[in-house]
Design goal:
- By secondary structure, this protein is mostly helical.
- The protein is built from nine helices and no strands.
- The two termini are 24 Å apart.
- The mean pLDDT is 77.
């Protein structure tokens, strides 16, 4: 079945332009605004949306105070989400880089927790932090569901474990792909 022709308002295109010029990839902008990639690229070429034309502030003059409220936990979560996003769109190299950053940040977070709570296991630290967290309206089951990694991440982690344990996947790519799919 073919996709229908989509007409977007000028405000959608203006926001897409701003997002693209602010540094997002064309693919991300198209997903965010439900635009066709070829239509976006055609419009960008027609109207000259080029990042190289943007004037960047000289080094040292960037206001980094906007990042003061970004915690290490936020960084870990962002790296994990970027890893999953790269996996879902099939960008293996990018996914590998995000995974490496995610694991490094998680190790740094664990080391900071161990330093702040000497003699406690990670499970004890989590229990202590959970007890100090403010009560939300969520039920315990909802909280557990929200805390669990997405299914796609579980499937990809299983595939990565299989690759690392075996060295290379057995058989051809289609056989490996079918062996790592989650059962319905």
């Amino acid at each position: 079945m073919s996709q229908t022709y989509r007409i977007r308002s000028i405000s959608v295109w203006a926001q897409a332009r701003d997002d693209y010029l602010s540094g997002l990839t064309a693919e991300t902008v198209c997903r965010r605004h439900d635009l066709g990639l070829s239509a976006f690229r055609r419009r960008a070429r027609k109207y000259g949306w080029r990042r190289s034309d943007e004037i960047l502030p000289p080094p040292g003059e960037v206001d980094r105070s906007i990042y003061d409220d970004v915690t290490l936990d936020d960084q870990v979560e962002t790296a994990q989400l970027r890893f999953v996003e790269a996996l879902e769109v099939g960008k293996a190299t990018e996914a590998r880089r995000w995974r490496r950053l995610w694991l490094e940040l998680r190790e740094a977070s664990d080391a900071l927790d161990a330093e702040m709570f000497p003699g406690m296991t990670p499970m004890q630290i989590q229990a202590l932090l959970a007890a100090e967290a403010p009560e939300d309206d969520e039920t315990e089951a909802e909280a557990l569901w929200l805390a669990a990694p997405p299914l796609a991440l579980k499937v990809h982690q299983t595939a990565l474990e299989k690759i690392s344990s075996e060295g290379q996947p057995a058989g051809d790519a289609a056989t490996f792909r079918n062996s790592t799919r989650a059962a319905p």
